[in-house]
Amino acid sequence: MYRPLELFIGLRYTRAKRRNHFISFISLVSMLGIAVGVTALITVISVMNGFDSELRTRILGMVAHATISGVGQSVTDWPRAVEIAKRNPHVQGAAPYVEREAFLRGDAASQGAIIRGVLPAQESKVADIGQKMIAGRLNDLAQGSWGIVLGKDLALNLGVGVGDKVVVYAPEFNVTPIGVVPRLKRFTVVGLFEAGMEEYDSGLAVINMHDAEALYNMPGPSGVRLRLDDMFRAYDVAHDLANHLGQAYRVQTWMEGHANFFKAVSMEKKVMFIILSLIVAVAAFNLVSTLVMLVTDKQSDIAILRTLGATPRSIMGVFMVQGLLVGAIGILIGVVCGVALSLNLEALVSWIQHVTGVQFLSPDVYYISNVPSDLHWGDVGWISAMGLLFAFVATLYPAWRASRTQPAQALRYE
């Protein structure tokens, strides 16, 4: 008895058995349409989040969050750069590296690749390549052993495996009595890794940093790679380190090297959100036709309420309560279904692939062969709020039309 009049009558109309069953059917269709739209939107956004997270993990497992490099080809005083970097509270690890281009010749073919020289004992502080080994160990890259670790696809293209020899041609030349000859060295394959990214699996080879310095005749490493406690702080950390290191050093972040890629993923996510939001909007605006027919059906009831003293604002409130209730129930069903589907999507897709025998994402074509899902409750909140906003807007015209009902005209033929 203490509830507002609009809420009481609106809920009473919702529970009442309607004379026009077609209106009830349209209300049910609107509710289910909103539920389906919200379910699809939550699921698709969760899949987009999953792909984004998976790609970030795979890429950042092979590259550093930030990199300190010299103005020239090498950094001779790299221990000082490491010491300054570790003073920053957000830097969790630092390790020197060499990174240059080379031409590799195996038993079956030849191919260009990136040579990365690392210190095996320190590489785990900045990258996860040691955890991605499928044969051999990263620690087998001892100084002077001239060992090399290849990406899985690179080794396949070269036709080599663990224990085989690979000739590495550096883009440098030696002047000898017989003329200018390229600098080359024969390496022994001591391991293979699989990062899950074609860019690295088919184009990256890892050797000991000191061997790389000797191969390229460098006085020091190319720079220092850093791992941060939060990769999204990379820009702020880079700006701070640049001020402390001086002009002889250059600090770059992972965002600069892969900015276009992640911008494309972010843009795709926004576009998918807008497109699927239109589905929710269409379903929500079906409430307009439902409430217009309901207002027409309840003309006499509205007239009686007006003669009893109900204001036009109260009449608007009655029908807005009904529209919002239908929308809220549809959104609630959609949220429950969307969350349940997002949390179990990987298992569901695996089961469908097992039953049908169809691989949705072929590992030969795509970077990721499964369908990842990463549910963010913030996205669920935004989607729910958007659905309620659409439902609210859809109730405005029918409720306003109901408030304009004239009691005398409505009751003339009653």
Report on this model:
By secondary structure, the chain is of the alpha+beta class. The chain has two domains: 5-58 and 261-410, no CATH class; 72-246, no CATH class. Helix content is 54%, strand content 20%. The chain is built from 14 helices and ten strands. It has a six-stranded mixed barrel with strand order 2-3-8-5-7-6. It is elongated, with a radius of gyration of 33 Å. The mean pLDDT is 81.
List the domain count as a whole number: 2
What gyration radius follows from the Cα positions, in whole Å? 33 Å
Biggest β-sheet, characterized? 6 strands, mixed, barrel
* Helical coverage, percent range: 40-55%
Shape: elongated
* Number of continuous helical runs: 14
H/E order of the elements?
A: HHEHEEHEEHEEHEHEHEHHHHHH
Identify the strand order in the major beta sheet. 2-3-8-5-7-6
Determine the mean pLDDT. 81
SS-based class = alpha+beta
Cα-to-Cα separation, first versus last residue: 30 Å
Unreliable spans: none
How many DSSP E strands? 10
Helices and strands in order:
Elements: H1 5-15, H2 21-60, E1 66-70, H3 78-87, E2 91-105, E3 110-118, H4 120-123, E4 133-136, E5 147-151, H5 152-158, E6 165-176, E7 179-193, H6 198-201, E8 204-208, H7 209-216, E9 223-228, H8 234-245, E10 249-253, H9 254-297, H10 299-307, H11 312-343, H12 345-356, H13 377-403, H14 407-410
Parallel strand pairs: 3-8, 5-7
Antiparallel strand pairs: 1-9, 1-10, 2-3, 2-6, 2-9, 4-7, 5-8, 6-7
Quick structural overview:
This protein has 14 helices and ten strands.
